[in-house]
Amino acid sequence: MPIADKMVNMVEAASMIRKMFEEGIRMKEKYGADNVFDFSLGNPDVPPPPIVKKTLLELINSENISHGYMPNNGYPHVRQAVADYLNKEYNVGLNSDLIVMTSGAAGALNDTLKALLNPGEEILVPAPYFIGYNQYAFIAGATLKTAASLENFHLDLDAIEEGINEKTRVMLINSPNNPTGVVYTKQELDKLGNLLEKVSKKYGKRIYLISDEPYRKIAYDVEVPSMFDVYPHTIVLTSYSKELSLAGERIGYLAIHPKAEDAAMIAGAAGVTNTMIYVNAPALFQQVVGKLQGVTVDSEIYKKRRDMFCHGLHAAGYEFDVPEGAFYLFPKSPIKDDVKFTGILKEQNILAVPGTGFGGPGFFRLSYAVPDKTIQDSLEGFKKAIDSVK
Ligand code: PLP
């Protein structure tokens, strides 16, 4: 093998996703874009709010634009803008030294995990979970362990307690959740905070909470609780990929709770990780988002799609809990084998991701970051697919 042994499985897993992406392109060429219903990717199709373009143009035309290197953690004025915004929203007393600008939420996860984990230490995540976590754990040389969730995909605190041992360094959660759309409640998060305090004492080492929140602003009729109130040893990370529809611009940040144990050292280590991998977050979009704190896409657009999709799929006979956030549906596969069922959906030109890929066998994921028409026109195919296995 010309590539490292440890890369073989990783390349195979990545090429599965790439194959699905390429299959979508091939099918669109063959059947016409309007006749293929691609729900496979969480790639926002809603344009960024107009103020993004305006800010970008103003910046490009101004004398103040900067294109050079900067401190690894990001432009000081941008980190200050982020800290000011978070303090206003959550009253947490953050200073800009505890903010690191990153290349998306993926960059923030890589930075944080590399900063916190020794090789062989463990990350615990509730299943189902976002596929990318396997890769970030791999890069950090850590082991990703899963804890089962409750039937409604909320936190199963007993399973989490059982999953924690002397090797656990990080508890990783994601709410609103990809793939389930669940938003964890303040009550269950408070219980998680208490549990992490208890097990940190039990094992004589600090277990950190990482809260991966790129969908925070895409929630419907529910409050997404502030993680800064839950447990002091928390690192919140996010991006502008979904909330400003800027996924390709690779911009995000991590914010460390001021009371987290060794907070300053974590920020320093995360900044050094930046240097090792991509040096610093993209300069242009740091400067753009620095001016747009608190601006988000209109989540009503996603809510309308969610309602339309849920209505249609329920009518066709699919079972699922209505998601409270993000832009994913996670229905039960009508047959046990979710991989087989996504194959049956493909016969109707519908692309969905098997739950098995997210550590959630027996389900499948649909991204509704697609035009309304794609949802409407797909419903007949969904009905035929479920009817064919009844
Ligand atoms: N975390 C979750 C839960 C995601 O769904 C994604 C992307 O889909 C990421 C992290 C990575 O986000 P970004 O593109 O901002 O790096």
Task: Characterize the structure shown.
The protein has 390 residues and is α/β, with parallel strands linked by helices. The protein has twelve helices and twelve strands. The protein has helices at 5-31, 50-61, 76-90, 104-116, 132-140, 157-163, 186-203, 263-277, 283-290, 299-316, 338-347, 372-387, and strands at 37-38, 99-102, 122-126, 143-147, 168-174, 208-212, 234-239, 252-256, 328-329, 350-351, 353-354, 364-367. The protein has a seven-stranded mixed β-sheet with strand order 2-8-7-6-5-3-4, with helices on both faces. Strands 9-12-11 form a three-stranded antiparallel β-sheet, covered by helices on one side. It starts with a helix and ends with a helix.
Write the layout of secondary structure elements.
Blueprint: H1 5-31, E1 37-38, H2 50-61, H3 76-90, E2 99-102, H4 104-116, E3 122-126, H5 132-140, E4 143-147, H6 157-163, E5 168-174, H7 186-203, E6 208-212, E7 234-239, E8 252-256, H8 263-277, H9 283-290, H10 299-316, E9 328-329, H11 338-347, E10 350-351, E11 353-354, E12 364-367, H12 372-387
Parallel strand pairs: 1-10, 3-4, 3-5, 5-6, 6-7
Antiparallel strand pairs: 2-8, 7-8, 9-12, 11-12
Helix pairs in contact: 2-9, 3-9, 4-5, 4-8, 10-12
The chain binds pyridoxal-5'-phosphate (PLP).
Pyridoxal-5'-phosphate binds at residues 42, 104-106, 130, 132, 174, 178, 212, 214, 239, 241, 247, 252.
